[in-house]
């Protein structure tokens, strides 16, 4: 493991001390997990961060408004949070007046339905499901999260 990676882990683990820290910690660990699973993604992110420090785009401590200007880092964080959401609560919605049929089950109007965000990522029909994330997926989501 490189000094860069160890420094990144140390920085992440020592900065989580405030409200919402558990969600932030989950997001950080998720990013690190996906980076450890793919050395190409790790090398690309490392190169982007090193270049940003070299040209003084980044300095320590790294402010959020500066960090999100790094497209690969921003995309990796967003994709990691999509694949491994920090909140495991169902996101309830109220069924509209005409009712709803979900997976062959009919729900009447006014009924509240919800699903855990992590479960949604297992949809085999979703082109961005967990099964399709190969960190080439980082390339896909790089375009997806680039924004206007």
From TrEMBL:
It holds the Pfam family p450. Gene3D superfamilies: Cytochrome P450. Transmembrane segments: none annotated. GO terms for molecular function: heme binding; iron ion binding; monooxygenase activity; oxidoreductase activity, acting on paired donors, with incorporation or reduction of molecular oxygen. It comes from the Eukaryota. SUPFAM superfamilies: Cytochrome P450 (SSF48264). PANTHER family: CYTOCHROME P450, P450, PUTATIVE (EUROFUNG)-RELATED. This is Cytochrome P450.
């Amino acid at each position: 493991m490189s000094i860069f990676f160890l420094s990144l882990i140390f920085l992440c683990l020592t900065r989580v001390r405030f409200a919402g820290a558990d969600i932030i910690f989950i997001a950080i660990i998720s990013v690190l997990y996906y980076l450890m699973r793919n050395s190409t993604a790790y090398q690309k992110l490392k190169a982007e961060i090193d270049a940003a420090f070299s040209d003084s785009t980044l300095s320590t401590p790294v402010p959020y408004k500066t960090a999100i200007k790094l497209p690969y880092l921003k995309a990796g964080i967003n994709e990691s949070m999509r694949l491994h959401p920090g909140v495991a609560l169902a996101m309830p919605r109220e069924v509209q007046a005409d009712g709803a049929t979900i997976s062959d089950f009919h729900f009447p109007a006014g009924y509240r339905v919800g699903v855990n965000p992590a479960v949604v990522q297992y949809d085999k029909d979703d082109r961005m499901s967990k099964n399709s994330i190969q960190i080439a997926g980082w390339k896909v989501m790089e375009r997806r999260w680039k924004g206007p």
